[in-house]
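Supplementary Text 2. Reproducibility record for the structural model of the 348-residue chain.

All settings were left at their defaults, and a single model was retained for analysis rather than an ensemble. We include the record here because the model underlies the residue-level annotations in Supplementary Table 4.
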Amino acid sequence: LFHNEHCISLTSILIVGIFAGNYTSTTTCRCKVYSSPEQALLAMEMACRPIDGEPPPGGGGRARFVDALALPPQQGGKVVVMTADYCDGPDREAGETLERLDRPWDKWYFERVRERAHGRGLEEWTWVHPARDYIFRYDRGCFWMARPLAFSFRELTPATFFFFLMTDSNLLSRLLFRWLYTAGRLYRVLGRAPPKVVAQKIVAMDIYCPLRHAAMLIDYVRCTVPISTPLWLCPVRPASACHPPGPPGGAAAAAAAEDAALLQPLAPHAAEGPRGGLLVNVGVYGRVADGQGHLHSRRLEHWAAAHRARKMLYSQNFYSEEEFWNIYDKEAYRSLRERYGAEGRFPD
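Retained model, structure tokens:
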């Protein structure tokens, strides 16, 4: 038994070491600025396409990580597309350095992107980050939701100084309150806040939109929702592509894709069914000063329903029962509840 315990311990250490290896490697991130959402979305689509018809291990396309930030009009309105992959470290001969993101004096990721694209007016650059920092880059500052709306005060008082420390992204606030500025903690804070207040002050949702409608959605958000924060754009494979790998082409592959879509009828990436193409998750996260967040959210829900898009249901939803079942397959939902014994145990 003693010998077996040691074997188990050594095996556990080996397994942990293997997984930890992914977090001790580095990533190279190529950032390119586009003047319009249409150009940026085309670049994202190209980055998601497989090379020579052969997707890399684990699926995906030419880059392992692909996403983008659409800056608000006040900051130039440009879209920065980021494509990244694992690498062996910075190329010292080319002048590359390792850019860390986890220290108090390191700016939040969106601030670094904004500074390069808007502040310096750069069109393209490359960063090398520790892989762990890059993978969790949006956790610090919860994307940008830990940063408030702009405010000003004429006279510095203890109250205004404390408010500045708590809310502004600066070295001192990041040093003192970094434990608070994480996605998980801020999400729990929102969960404890009165739902009515959250609905009035905040618009937070992810909309899975067909690629052909994504630029239209970005323009619609900018024209109708009074937020001054970026929009997060992330390509998403459709449900029909999320099936075990098999021989490409043929009736068997088509049937597998259709089965994969049918197995996820309520998922946001199954909005277009088994024939759907690449989707774009448009993340709208911001605070509104007019106190009409629920009305802006309703408009976005209506837009999504009219353009074959779906929300992720983690956020507040304002659908009527009839509207909800016009979007989702009620029979499939009932079938899932019966299959997994939810009837009589979990509320409908």
